[in-house]
Amino acid sequence: MKTKVIEKLLSKKFIDWHQTIKDENVKKLVKSNTIITGGSIASMLLREDINDFDVYFTNKETALAVANYYVSEFLKISEHKFKNSDKKVEITVKDEDERIKIYIKSSGIAGAAGENDYQYFESRPPEEGEDFIESITKQVDQADDTLVNLKSDDKYKPVFMSANAITLSDKIQIVIRFYGDPATIHQHYDYQHCTNYWLSNTGKLTLNIEALKILMSKELVYVGSKYPICSVIRTRKFIKRGWTINAGQYLKMCFQISKLDLENLSVLEDQLIGVDAAYFCQLINALKEQKEREANFKFDYGYLATIIDKIF
After folding, report:
1. Is the domain of 88 the same as that of 197?
2. Model confidence pLDDT, tens digit, residues 40-56
3. Are residue 201 and residue 270 in the same domain, yes or no?
4. Residues 6 or more apart from 227 whose CB is under 8 A from it?
């Protein structure tokens, strides 16, 4: 797909989403401070289907405002669905140590289409997680079709939340874990082919030459990440799409993983959630529940392996 066409499609997608934001202050901040980057641009360059559009923000003020806005919208949906139930959803947004984090008492999925769409994530088998989120956000298959088919009131609803990200219907994934200019954002990206980006304040697409070379060869090149475990797991979907990866790239990921204290439950949780909401929620919940029952509980490989084999 030509770069001018991609630029136009990203602008249309952004405008379509931006128009659904009801809070004028949030709307103003989003208009000036949004970055779209990641796999969607790579998919368009390769003429492949788009899974979602990864959205970041250039400053903390915008990321915090957006997080609070969509948590509020999420709570309105959950309140409506549970109005005749004792079940409640508790979600708060906190700004701690220059990091914005969503605290969820019980991770949930909210859907706008019907009464049965809302359900707690841990009630589903974990292997269904990614497919479920993909199906709920896959209401439109092609980027240039995003301005039709749906009423504005039905679009861009929060359907899933994790500590680091908010998934909206209509293929928008808002990442609040990181913010800053594109160079800062891409310090936390794992694969180089995902480092092209579009800016809302200019409406312009910027292409990275090295990323384009890699796209042509479809060979994964790992450039480092705060979430190397997720990077390893993510290789599965690329390999299914015909990408290749050499052993050296895996070694880079393994080296970064070796520096993590995975016996620390907080570290393990942060790594498994990463910026992808669907990973290993049941595992983390099982470990947390055991920790609540036994204050001095510690887990090793054997215990972890047993839980993983039960879940999967």
Report:
1. yes
2. 999 999 988 898 999 99
3. no
4. 188, 190, 271, 274, 275
